[in-house]
Amino acid sequence: MREWKQSRPGAKVIAYFPVYAPVELIHAAGMLPVSLYGAGDRLDIQHADARFGSFICSIVKTTLEMGLTGHLEPFDGFLFSTICDSARNLCFVMRRNLPAMYVDFLRLPHNPSSPAAALFLAEEYRRILFELERLGACKVHDDAVRHSITVYNHHRALIRKLYEVRTRYPEKVSTGELYQLIRAGSSLPVEEHTAQLETALAQFCSRSVKKRDSIRIVVEGSFCEQPPLTLIQLIEDAGCYIVDDDFVIGQSWFEGDVPTEGDPLLSLATSYLDRSVYSSVRHDFRKPRWDGLVQKVRRSKADAVLFLIAKFCEPAYFDYVPYKQELERAGIPHLQLEFEEKSFTFDRLRTEIETFVESLIFD
Amino acid sequence: MRIAAGVDVGSTQTKAVVVSDNGGVKVLARALVDTGANVQRAAERAFDMCCHEAGIHSGDVGFVVGTGYGRYKIAFGNTQMTEITCHAKGASFLCPGTRTVIDMGGQDSKAISVGANGEVLDFVMNDKCAAGTGRFLANSAEVMSISLDEVGPLSLKAKHPVKIATVCTVFVESDILSYLAQGKTAEDILGGVHIAIAKRTLSLARRLNIEPEIAMTGGVARNVGMVWALEEVLGRKMLVSPDAQFIGAVGAALFALEKLDQSFESGIWRGDHAVSGGH
Amino acid sequence: MTEKKEYRGSIHQWQKDLMLAWYEQLDQAADTGSPATVSMMISGNCVELLEGFGAVPLYPEVNALQLAIRHQSLDPILAAEDLGYATDNCAYVKADVGCIVKGITPTGGKLPTPTLILCNFVGCNTYLKWFEHLAKLQQAPLYVIDVPFMRANEPSRSDLEYVIKQLQETVKKLEQLTGSKFDYDRFRQAVACSSRTEELWSRIKHLARRSPSPFDAYFDAITLMGPLYVYRARPEGVEFFEAALAELQAKADAHKGVYEQEHFRLVMEGPPPYPYFRTFRDMFAKWQACAVASTYSTVGGLWEFGFRHDPDNPFESVAMHMIAQNVTNRNFLQRYEQIRRYIEEWNADGLIIHFVKSCRLFSAGQGDMRDYFTKQLGVPTLYIESDLEDPRYFAEAQTKNRIDAFFEALEHSKTATPVREET
Predict the structure, then answer these.
(1) B207 at the A interface (CB within 8 A)?
(2) Does the distance separating the beta carbons of B120 and C408 come in below 8 Å?
(3) How many CB atoms lie within 10 A of CB C75?
(4) Which residues is B63 bridged to in the sheet?
(5) pTM value?
(6) Number of domains in chain A
(7) Distance of alpha carbon A309 from alpha carbon A20, whole angstroms
(8) Based on the domain organization, do C128 and C201 belong to the same domain?
(9) What ipTM was reported for this prediction?
(10) Partner of A106 at 20 to 30 A CA spacing, among B11, B24, C239, C356?
């Protein structure tokens, strides 16, 4: 990232807290959007614990830790949004402790049923764009935003295709591999990542691998703090094909292309409201997200659901209840596990997953 | 000569200290017993032992301050103060220049910001779980079938300390077993455990302004491995008094001495009869 | 034992009667379907709007806290955990869901299925989930008023317009559901009532600036919050607060404080441990420490700094209240500012930060708050931890220990410094 900055003097990097962010706006302003998934297991929490107590998820603390220890120095801005209470408070604690950085909070609407919501969100985007223009001392025209939308549409379409390939032919691409491929995009320029995805897609399709006798599962609940890669691999090694998941869901938030006709900010807004995937951090009381989960399971022809929830993740814990109820009604088996981004031993989790797989095989 | 005493009833051990002021404050004696189930009895025993050590009668003691979690059960105490206040006072006296106290006891750990006169400016406590306490170390020792006295010295011999992510006493046991199964040495595992505890304790302490001198108190201060690990993470040496375990009782005794100055009925009631006069 | 002079004037009984009357109305609604009832959140609630339909508010939070105070919260919480709620989910939600599932109510009377579940989302993401779950459980219609979070110090014009439009949509929705037309005049009168109640409440809050304060602005204020949220927009509410102000004014004029001697003046941050309300209070009473201000008593509305509903601009002022004038929808740094003002203007000796496990909105980041007040402002601050609803998370001895240590130190510093001039 420092390289990227060096090769473009004056260019800015804007971090965003996962899940969804209007990366098109950042891109259109000539800046690099980077999704920060905390420090994983690479940073000890030495200072952030003093600010955020117990019962708070690790990603909030490691993100703050990075801020307090100077690791966020290459970033010029940080964008938060309305995903949960802990993350929101983090935004303002960061503002206090990193006064030189542009730290903003995007209010995503929770009432998509209101016609006023689209206008409100477009206005929010306009405001953020204005701040980015100020930060970058540039002017961003509608056409630039339309162009960025096109670029990201293509990027998202590739991710959807890759996911489809994995769903239909999970033997050809392991989730461990797919995950690393997609997650790498969180800190790369989108053009570079798109090229990587195109290469990978061609490669995956051309593979011919023997199919194993594995259970097809959907993994749900890891939309923000990410499980260690070792854990993902462990799940597959225990006899599962992960045929769909919500890892790094922020990268493929929209269900189709965002239209580029007309006001691009309004277009982004209506896409968020009406054409985005369901998630524990998006609220639309017109369409219960538990129906979304059941549909996802059926669409991907999965055998079961594994709830992989970050410890202390409040939205995921809450949604687990109606998700569980609907899965039981639909007769879909499921297992709930907790993880922390910082884990070094996985014996307990391995045992639980293996037991679950066995119970499904020997039904 | 004025004589006063402090009794610190901890969850695992009860300490008593007698001090005198005869033109200069001195610690006359100290005593330590296991607390056991009967807090009242433990307090009495420690106090009696201490008086015996000092070569005085219990009636010679003009004022007794009780502290520790069992402080309300000390029937012969004249008043009680929290161990936070007493630790600050005691550390200031035994380790001159103390501005920060890091106390790691049997069941809780705390950090205290101390003023020039031993007064408490601020404090933080971990009193809701065993992380960073003697209990954590005792559990780890048990899981590894090593005696508690050995864990410290062994940890100093670590070549490649393992990474411990959790400081939950329950979960760390399975981590330790995992590492043992992987063939890691006891030294490396203990090294990792000590460092993890040190980091966690200092993480708590950072809620305060950690200012030198930093004194370490409490039972865990006798663990050379823990002292080393804390100094490593802190990046500086700490003051560790040989009386680290008694600091609470010393502080209580010093407060008792102060109270003796103020007009007060001096006399100790044990059970239901006065042992000495003075009213 | 230090004498505990609690606030137990005639107001105390009156407040109880008002709350019982409210529960009776709800019981009646459960039987007859009338009046219409609307579930709402306390924070930034728009009870004025309901008056336009003669509808009665249902406050799941009030049910939850009533249960906790009566030591009845554990059973429903366990029932909810059986359903799959996590130990780390907000215990308010668990208690409420558990009650519905087990058919428990705080008074033993019936609670109706609401005509509308109105989620006034003011910053608390848990509210959204809670009400989604209630809608599923109770099979009642749900509408979410999305109130934009205060990311800056003032709301924008577009924030206000967005909320006003949604309030108008809510009106349409209620017209559909109740079959009655919205009575705009009644609504305006309700807003006028609120404005008067708020003036009285604000004056009561300002009485605590006196030394001694005639009431405890945490424990006693919480008791007064019930009528504030249920009856704010009704004449009964105005009457009640007129009497409350008169009673407290008389106490203040007679220099009567909560304790024999007001030894310490405190600002309290965070909700109380409801299952241990009395025990917790005693820990402060021991030291004759009186709260002169609290953030929790401003969840429903922040009125001591001058805001009032405006009957000439009813929709706009209701929107303004929901967006900017309640502690829940205000950002974390604004809360620091609110507390700082309390410490200075209400002349407090220290700050108590009560971290509650259930509520991340209040608690996430309170360590940073502590850092600000101790290191930046030099305000004596105590940090304690428990929960607001779940009785399993209160460590009495440890909490008492921390409180005692704090006051020992505060006492020491008081005797070491010249006595502060009393007003």
Answers:
(1) yes
(2) yes
(3) 14
(4) B4
(5) 0.92
(6) 1
(7) 18
(8) no
(9) 0.94
(10) C356
